[in-house]
Specification:
Strand content: 15-25%
GO cellular component, one term: cytoplasm
CATH topology: Beta Polymerase, domain 2
Largest sheet: 6 strands, mixed
Order of helices and strands: HEEHEEEHHE
Protein name: Ribosomal silencing factor RsfS
Shape: globular
Strand order of the largest sheet: 3-4-5-2-1-6
Number of strands: 6
CATH class: Alpha Beta
Number of domains: 1
Number of helices: 4
GO molecular function: ribosomal large subunit binding
CATH superfamily: Beta Polymerase, domain 2
Structural class: alpha+beta
Main location: cytoplasm
Family: Belongs to the Iojap/RsfS family.
């Protein structure tokens, strides 16, 4: 059994929004079989604190505009090294590239299947 279609849809909208803000290595992980609190982790990174903030803002705006969803919680925005957006069924991790390399969430959750986010790289921002 995999993540529900609604969760996958939210992850795809969030992934595209992150890519539109030039996020690097946008990856969706289906953690529905591994944890009970959420279905999908979306992980992406930026090269600076300013870009991390812009990516998080862009994702939040897209999910509000396109799916009328607000995060239940937003953490880490003051330092903007790792901003977490918790939507319940998906959790979005926007990390500074250095922190992403150090914490290596993809390695920690390597048993989780990778989701095809269907990101359109050529789409205008």
């Amino acid at each position: 059994m995999s993540a529900p279609e609604e969760s996958l849809d939210l992850a795809r909208v969030a992934g595209q929004a992150a890519a539109d803000k030039l996020a690097e290595e946008v990856i969706g992980l289906d953690v529905s079989e591994l944890v009970v609190i959420t279905d999908v982790f979306l992980v992406c990174s930026g090269d600076s604190e300013r870009q991390v903030s812009a990516i998080a803002d862009g994702v939040e705006e897209a999910l509000l505009k396109e799916r009328r969803r607000k995060p239940l919680r937003r953490e880490g925005e003051r330092d903007a090294r790792w901003v977490l957006l918790d939507y319940g069924d998906i959790v979005i991790h926007v990390q500074h590239a250095e922190d992403r390399a150090f914490y290596a969430l993809e390695r920690l959750w390597r048993d989780a299947p990778v989701i095809d986010l269907q990101i359109d790289e050529g789409r205008p921002a």
